[in-house]
Specification:
CATH topology of the largest domain in chain B: Arc Repressor Mutant, subunit A
Oligomer: heterodimer
Enzyme class (chain B): transferase
CATH topology of chain A: Rossmann fold
Number of domains of chain A: 1
InterPro entries (chain B): Cro/C1-type_HTH (IPR001387), HisK_dim/P_dom (IPR003661), HisK_dim/P_sf (IPR036097), IrrE_HExxH (IPR010359), Lambda_DNA-bd_dom_sf (IPR010982), ScfR_C (IPR018653), TransReg_Diox_bact_type (IPR050807)
GO molecular function (chain B): DNA binding; DNA-binding transcription factor activity; phosphorelay sensor kinase activity
Protein name (chain B): histidine kinase
CATH superfamily of chain A: Response regulator
Largest sheet of chain B: 6 strands, mixed
Helix content of chain B: 40-55%
Structural class of chain B: alpha+beta
Number of helices of chain A: 5
Strand content of chain B: 5-15%
Strand content of chain A: 15-25%
Organism (chain B): Ferruginivarius sediminum
Number of domains of chain B: 5
Radius of gyration of chain B: 33 Å
Number of helices of chain B: 21
CATH architecture of chain A: 3-Layer(aba) Sandwich
Largest sheet of chain A: 5 strands, parallel
Number of strands of chain A: 5
Helix content of chain A: 40-55%
Largest interface: A-B, 17 and 17 residues
CATH class of chain A: Alpha Beta
Strand order of the largest sheet of chain B: 7-6-10-9-8-11
């Protein structure tokens, strides 16, 4: 079974490019355009990784991250934040909340793909 | 804390009262030589002697003892530790000495320091407001989002050779769309950060009015219409326009015009008394100016609603700015009344914008005509797009507007090579100049001084220089381009103002270029410019 990734990003074009990249990397992709939907999808399908934007409508990325980390059943879900918030304080806050990696926009697509691969252990066939 | 010297106060007060040292010494019961030591701060004073001295000098003992001075010395000593005085550290000892030498200068230093602190606080506050400005914060996020999209799809197009045609087309369209959005947004940000007429977080009243003028393109149909109607009513009368204005004021508003000696009126030479229904004009004013003042008054009487409407603009954030705008609008109305749009534009085009001819034809002044030319911006029936500025001989810019594309300096003086400054070398004579900006854009400048006649011999006279100009592309429509050459080639190398100008080799440079970068060459050029200023022999 392929590993799965949830793209939580409210900008449609960025979500589309990320979905494309993840599919090309052999992952199963779902997209959420707001924080509340993203959490619902985590609950429904427990993805292996969440690509999480911070400035999401509804519950923002920090709240989504906090909720994911607060639930023991989702302890193994990897979270990679992709954000325009490049301030050091935002990065620290995300680290404090238990994010696995943090990339600021505008990002390099190769770098994102590399970091996703680094976060996901080889799939068990 | 250092002992505050008392001697200087005793000596000063004794001189004030014209008492000799010997006399004062006798009155307070000490020897003249001891008093001399006290006056030179070589003996300390206290108790009964201080009280007797205060009595003899008819002074409050507190003042004499220097309680106030002690506070000043303490404050001065405290500011001596501020980092701004890093290279000239001073302590309470120095402070006390300064106070002894000159109490007034000491207070001046404190006043200056307080003003400096207030300014620093304001700067902090402004920086804070800029960083929190919702427009910039939002723009920042949008720009990053757009760039992220463009970059992602560009890299996908580069890295994935197996895209099908539909995908490739869609991804390319996304890149193009987002690039266009990014361009628009970048323009908005540039406008915000200082483009002319753009909204800015902080602006002086003058800048706010400049913004309103710019955003209306210096054309106000709400004032043109009433001016045109009024002109047609006035125009039916016989005689000169000047006489007709006076007659109209009398007939329709019961206002009479009287002339007074210049000294009896405020500096502008005009005073309106609404109660007495009377406008007083200085005998020293030329007819053209008198007419203009009467036209302004008619604007106040007959177009007040239109003027008030324009001044309700939300960009005007203070009463000062609104009042300034009102004054500008009354002058606009006067211009529109005295130089009716269609007629004036037709004659201007016919006479190839020869300001002297237009001034003669319409009975106006150089400044009025030059200014009116900049307002010929009615969409669909526009004149040449001009810029306009007025400066005094010290370089203070008091009027500015630009529709020509030329950037006029907002802060400080303009480029010293501009014709407007040269005009002061030949007062009353027209100076023209083909000027080339650092970016290669070229403008035709026309400048002349205008002076208000002195009210009498020995009286100060006000003199300004006026400049209008246009992009070289329009120059052929102007009589002033004649003889410069068939292709208007070349031009004087100029800039906007020294701090913004990249011409490092300019011999007229007054200030180093701001944000010149940190290259050794740039730094050397900046140092050289500074040393030129410091060395008057160069």
């Amino acid at each position: 079974m392929p590993q799965s990734v949830l793209v939580a990003e409210d900008e449609q074009s960025i979500a589309e490019s990320l979905a494309f990249l993840m599919e090309k990397a052999g992952l199963e992709v779902r997209i959420a355009y707001d924080g509340t939907t993203a959490l619902q999808m985590v609950a429904d399908s427990r993805p292996d990784l969440v690509l999480l934007d911070l400035m999401l409508p509804g519950q923002d990325g920090f709240e989504v991250l906090k909720a994911v980390r607060a639930n023991p059943r989702w302890r193994d879900v990897r979270v990679l934040i992709l954000t325009a918030k490049g301030r050091e304080i935002d990065r620290r806050k995300a680290m404090e909340l238990g994010v696995d990696d943090y990339v600021t926009k505008p990002f390099s697509t190769r770098e994102v793909v590399d970091r996703v691969k680094a976060l996901l252990p080889p799939a068990e066939d | 804390m250092a002992e505050v010297p008392v001697g200087h106060r005793i000596r000063a007060r004794r001189h004030e009262l014209a008492i000799t040292q010997v006399d004062l010494a006798r009155r307070v019961g000490v020897s003249p030589s001891y008093l001399n030591l006290i006056e030179h701060d070589r003996r300390r004073v206290g108790g009964g002697l201080l009280r007797r001295l205060a009595e003899a000098l008819r002074m409050d003992q507190h003042t004499l003892s220097g309680a106030e001075d002690a506070r000043i010395v303490a404050e001065l000593a405290e500011i001596g530790t501020d980092s701004v005085f890093e290279d000239v550290r001073f302590d309470s000892e120095d402070a006390a000495q300064l106070l002894a030498a000159s109490p007034r200068l000491t207070r001046a230093v404190l006043t200056l320091y307080r003003a400096y602190r207030t300014t620093l606080n304001q700067v902090d506050e402004l920086s804070e407001r800029v960083s929190r400005d919702p427009f910039l914060a939002d723009a920042n996020h949008q720009i990053l989002t757009l760039i992220t999209t463009i970059r992602s799809f560009s890299e996908i197009l580069r890295d994935y050779g197996d895209l099908d045609d539909a995908q490739r087309r869609r991804f390319l369209a996304t890149v193009v769309d987002n690039s266009e959005n990014l361009s628009d947004l970048a323009q908005q940000v540039f406008d915000f950060l200082g483009g002319q007429g753009a909204r800015r977080p902080f602006a002086s009243p003058a800048q706010e009015v400049d913004d309103v003028l710019h955003d209306h393109g210096n054309f106000f149909p709400d004032l043109e219409r009433p001016a045109q109607i009024l002109r047609s009513r006035i125009g039916r009368r016989s005689g000169t326009l000047y006489a007709a204005l006076i007659a109209h004021l009398d007939a329709h508003h019961g206002i009479h015009v009287t002339f007074r000696q210049a000294g009896e009126l405020p500096p502008g030479g005009v005073r309106f008394d609404p109660e007495a229904r009377c406008i007083e004009l200085s005998e020293a004013l030329p007819d053209a100016t008198c007419r203009f003042q009467l036209a302004r008054l008619l604007g106040r009487l007959e177009a007040s609603e239109a003027v008030a409407g324009i001044c309700e603009d939300e960009r005007l954030t203070s009463d000062t700015a609104r009042e300034r705008c009102r004054e500008a609008m009354l002058s606009y109305f006067a211009g529109a009344l005295l130089y009716p749009y269609d007629t004036f534009l037709e004659v201007a085009e016919g006479e190839r914008y020869d300001i002297a001819v237009l001034a003669q034809r319409f009975g106006g002044s150089f400044e009025q005509v030059a200014h009116r030319l900049t307002t010929l911006r009615r969409p669909g029936r526009e004149g040449v797009p001009f810029h306009f500025m007025r400066t005094d001989i010290a370089g203070n810019i008091s009027k500015r507007f630009s529709a020509s594309g030329l950037r006029l300096p907002r802060y400080g003086g303009a480029c010293p090579r501009w014709a407007i400054h040269q005009a002061f070398l030949t007062p009353g004579r027209l100076v023209r100049q083909l000027a080339e900006m650092p970016d290669g854009s070229r403008y035709l400048f026309v400048a002349r001084t205008v002076e208000r006649p002195a009210p009498g011999f020995g009286q100060p006279q006000s003199i300004h220089a006026i400049m209008i100009g246009c992009d070289a592309a329009f120059a052929a429509r102007l009589v002033y381009a004649d003889g410069i050459g068939p292709h208007l080639a070349g031009g004087t190398p100029v800039g906007t103002s020294c701090p913004q100008c990249p011409r490092e080799d300019c011999a007229q440079r007054a200030f180093p270029r701001a944000m010149a970068g940190t290259s050794p060459e740039a730094q050397a050029a900046a140092r050289s410019a500074e040393s030129d200023i410091a060395d008057p022999t160069k």
